[in-house]
Every structure is written in C-alpha cells, then in structure tokens.
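Batch manifest line 345
LIGAND: 3,4-dihydroxyphenylalanine
JOB: complex structure
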Amino acid sequence: MAMQTKISALLSEVESFTASSLHEVEEFRVKLFGKKGEVTLLFDEFKQVSGEVKRELGKKINELKSKAQDRVSELRQALEASPSPTLLLDTSRPGSADSVGTRHPIASARSEILNIFRQLGFTVAEGPEIEDDRHVFGALNFPPEHPARDMQDTFFIEKREGDDNPVLLRTHTSSIQVRAMESQQPPIRIVCPGRVFRNEAISARAHCMFHQVEGLYVDHSVSFADLKQTLLYFAKELFGANVEIRLRPSFFPFTEPSAEMDVSCSICGGKGCNICKGTGWLEVSGCGMVDPSVLDACKIDSQKYSGFAFGMGVERIAMLKYQARDLRLYFENDVRFLRQFTAVV
Ligand code: DAH
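JOB STATUS: finished
ARTIFACT:
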C-alpha cells in the first residue's frame, strides 16, 4: 500500500476510534506506537523516502502522529474521570447477591420467651417506656425511701421538689402489670416485654438499657404451685426437657412470698462449669405471689383474687442460649457479631 493511503486509512481509524475501558485505549496505543506499531513502522518506512514527496509525506505523518496521541490522551482522561458506562450496563456480569437480614438475637430470645407463654394462654401486653413514679414504684409497694427511687439508679425525666409522682424512664417492666390491673379485672394472664433503663455504668455485665419480660396471672385462687408449674414448663421449653428448676427465697416489694428461680445448667448438665460458675444452676427469673397491697392499689379485690408474677432479663436468656457473654455486643450492632445468628429464627 502506498504510504499516502496508509496514512489516510490510519487517520480515519484514529478519528473514529472510541474505547470503553482504559485497557482498550492502551491496546490502541500499542497498535499504533508500539515497537511494531503501525505509526512506528510508517516512520521507519519514511526514512527510505527521498525527493519531492518527502516534505509532503513528513507533514502528513506528523499530523497523524499528533492526532493519534491527542485521541489516546483524550480517551484516557475521559475514562479516568468517569467509570465506563458499559461497565455499569454490562448485563452479563455476575450479580452481587443482596444479603438477607436476620433477626437480632435479642428479638429472637424475646419472641422465643413470649411464644412459650402464649402456649399457656398468656397474651402480650405493652406499656410506655416513659412512665411515672406511681406505675414503676408507688403501686408496686416500693417504700418512699427505697434506693431505686434515687437519681443514682433511675433516670428521671423531670423531678421537681415536692413532686410525688415524677416522670421517669421505667426501670422494670413490672409497671405494665400495674397498667393492666388498673384497666381490667381478673382473669388477667399477660406477658409484658419491653426496654428498661437504669443508671448504670456500661460494662460487659451491666448496661443502662436492657430488655425484660414480665409475667402476671391474677384470678380466683391462683397458688404458688401454679407459679412453680408455669415456670417449670417455661424452663423445659426454653432449655430442654431434662432441665430442673429450683426456687430460692428472695425479696421484692411487690411479691410476698418472693423467690428467685434457678434452672439447672443446660451447658454442663448441672455438673458445674464456668457458665454456672461451678454451681450447676443458672439464675433466670425473679418471681412471687402478687402482694395483696399491690392488688388493692390497682383496685383489684385482694380478698377475692390472688396472683403470681415473674420477671426476667432478655439479655440474660440470650447470653445463656447463645453464650455471647459481653452485654455490649448485643447493643453495638456490629454486623460481624449479628451475622453469626443467621440460623436463629
Ligand atoms: N421487676 C424485677 C426486676 O426488675 C423482676 C421481678 C421480680 C419481676 C419478681 C416480678 C417478680 O414480677 O415477681 O428486677
């Protein structure tokens, strides 16, 4: 091919060339200016040319060279500035799978607890997180000088001098019992999940916010045996048919008698391990018979009715079930932690 024709062909190739990636631009550059590139070879060929045509051809070759160089740098700049549209539109690329969200371990533990009590005929009741003193303490028989009523333990929203019913963040879900008893007469059979707040320094074992489930059953002649059987059923459903429970005497202002329920350690089978601190028992729930003065404070006739109540921490149950023992993990929402619960429903 005469040089003249080659130059014209290359010139129109340069002018019409487009690229969708930097790689293509580089390939084009090598095709023209590489060791064996077409423009490089033209220059070699040009060395043999002599006479009249030399000037004319020289001009043309240089024009081709600079147009090609301009085109290469122009395309390069454009591609560096914005990602290739064909890359975005490439329908043949493998898709990136959306990861499916999972339930938070606290939500799973909470619904597992509630479902067990639902089987026993309990319904779910909820109440406000911002409460007043009467529902959190007063009606539940807390004496006025009880330490829980102190700023050190309770977050007050507003506490004015002489105000005997200040607004505060509930410190336990027992406040929902009060609301339920105030608004309905027995039979009452409820479980009350919710967030509670206490003025605690945050550590692996304590947090200023956590979750509880409260239970309440009030009817004619409800007995301590009913409480014990209900808790035994719950423990077996939650931790397995082989677990046993024990009730230790305890004290709460709103129950009389009061007890602490332990479940035999499902991890070591009661032999003693580091989860149960070698005792073979895990503390799970506070409980007791509703104090008659609590019934009366909520306008339920304590001569006619009796009831039992219990309360447990959801984080505590989650820790025992999933064995992640730093409380903070449940609140930080680090996806690396949460992804481990994909199998938990
Ligand atoms: N409200 C108690 C707490 O926050 C838990 C509790 C104990 C609830 C005994 C009850 C009960 O209903 O009977 O520690």
